[in-house]
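Need residues for this backbone.
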């Protein structure tokens, strides 16, 4: 009973401290400029305070000092303090990535030196016996720790994503620590879980604040620490493959994206927009749907890891599942553009007359069009420029091809994300001049023609005066 009360207290106290700290820290961050400004690689469009990580770490440190025996966790807490400070400095005044790597390596070395937390074995991943690391264990421990740190940092791209995945991971590690009878690690995991729930209260879409590097790199370090501490001592129930399953989503995303960059002759750290959350957004999912899908994948692997530990599933079976997920994501990443074009072409075939009917209605309307009983919307050929402003990209200039009362077609040199709506701005010919015309439109279809992409757009939001203008230039039936 005492252990249950202590576990509840660890979660609750950390939750309340973080919940109390976040609003005042946000106001202070706005005053001093500790904010994340939008740019072409980022999805948000307004500055956001970077205080989530500070509040989470403060809550966990206070809770740990009050409730957790910390004698064996000196390496963990020292690394947390070091990386939180590094992250705050980087959030406030961006520092060179090489310097950040040095501090991450130092945190890993302190973890090894002060807590003896080191990776000795990968377990029996291939059903050929234990894969022992021998004299390379220290170097591989540092490499894997830095890898997990950056994996968590890289998925922090959509409201609630990094926090949600981290919450699932910490809750899973708390269960695994309980199975191992490692109660201090269970309490630390619950403390992080409580603080993350409070953080998600303000970070869920539409977010009011971000965790920043102070949160993401520190959380990555703690997850790496727990992954090693739960698996590397003799007679533990949790095998080394289990944390790999728990962290499958960020690890696979990072390995795949870095491999793609190197295959294209770029630095593995070159920023781009090919992460899993970017791919799902390209296929038309909303931010909430994207986060939900990725969290569900993470929840699936976490559930498998707990069940695999509870029922002593052989390690190579779990590793086979992880490998299958890796290859699916890796191979899919090379067909993103083709899949998106195919999807939009399918939509074009179903929207030739401005509506999206069901299968039976689609066939019926096609015959009506062929028999000239139902005519398509009249389109006027034009030769004007058009500017598109997608929500998560800089403006794109293209060539207007034609326009109707329901939408327009245009050619662009790049592939535009298939999102709910894009802002547009153009001039349409009226009385020998170009009348300014703007609003919100939705991408319906796309065709690749030479070096350009031809798009069909449907009007979503235009002014009443613009609607009358479209009719006045004889675009209505």
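Answer:
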């Amino acid at each position: 009973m005492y252990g249950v009360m202590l576990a509840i207290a660890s979660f609750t106290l950390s939750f309340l401290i973080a919940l109390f700290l976040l609003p005042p820290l946000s106001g202070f961050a706005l005053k001093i400029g500790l904010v994340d400004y939008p740019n072409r690689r980022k999805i948000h469009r307004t500055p956001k305070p970077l205080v989530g990580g500070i509040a989470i770490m403060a809550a966990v440190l206070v809770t740990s000092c009050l409730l957790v025996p910390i004698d064996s966790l000196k390496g963990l807490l020292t690394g947390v303090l070091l990386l939180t400070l590094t992250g705050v400095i980087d959030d406030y005044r961006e520092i060179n990535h090489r310097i950040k790597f040095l501090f991450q390596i130092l945190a890993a070395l302190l973890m090894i030196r002060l807590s003896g937390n080191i990776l000795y074995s990968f377990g029996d991943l291939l059903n050929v016996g234990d894969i022992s690391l021998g004299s390379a264990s220290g170097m591989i421990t540092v490499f894997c720790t830095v890898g997990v740190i950056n994996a968590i940092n890289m998925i922090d791209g959509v409201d609630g994503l990094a926090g949600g995945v981290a919450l699932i991971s910490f809750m899973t590690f708390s269960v695994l620590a309980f199975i191992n009878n490692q109660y201090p690690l269970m309490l630390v995991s619950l403390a992080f879980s409580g603080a993350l729930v409070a953080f998600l209260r303000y970070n869920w879409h539409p977010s009011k604040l971000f965790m920043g590097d102070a949160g993401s790199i520190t959380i990555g370090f703690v997850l790496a620490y727990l992954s090693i501490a739960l698996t590397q001592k003799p007679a533990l129930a949790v095998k080394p493959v289990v944390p790999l399953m728990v962290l499958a989503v960020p690890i696979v995303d990072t390995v795949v994206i870095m491999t793609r960059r190197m295959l294209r002759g770029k630095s593995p750290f070159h920023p781009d927009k090919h992460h899993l959350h970017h791919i799902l957004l390209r296929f038309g999912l909303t931010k909430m749907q994207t986060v939900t899908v990725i969290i569900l994948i993470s929840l699936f692997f976490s559930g498998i890891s707990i069940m695999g530990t509870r029922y002593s599933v052989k390690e190579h079976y779990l590793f086979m599942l992880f490998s299958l997920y890796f290859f699916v994501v890796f191979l899919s990443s090379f067909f993103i553009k083709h899949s998106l074009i195919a999807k939009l072409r399918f939509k074009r075939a179903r929207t030739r007359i401005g509506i999206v009917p069901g299968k039976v209605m689609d066939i019926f309307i096609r015959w009506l069009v062929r028999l000239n009983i139902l005519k398509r919307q009249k389109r006027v050929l034009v030769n004007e420029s058009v500017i598109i402003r997608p929500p998560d990209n800089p403006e794109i200039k293209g060539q207007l091809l034609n326009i109707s009362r329901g939408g327009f077609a245009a050619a662009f040199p790049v592939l535009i994300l298939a999102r709910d709506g894009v802002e547009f701005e153009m001039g349409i010919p009226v009385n020998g001049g170009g009348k300014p015309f703007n609003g919100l439109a939705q991408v319906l279809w796309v065709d690749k023609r030479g070096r350009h992409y031809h798009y069909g757009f449907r009007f979503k939001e235009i002014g009443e005066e613009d609607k009358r203008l479209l009719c006045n230039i004889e675009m209505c039936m």
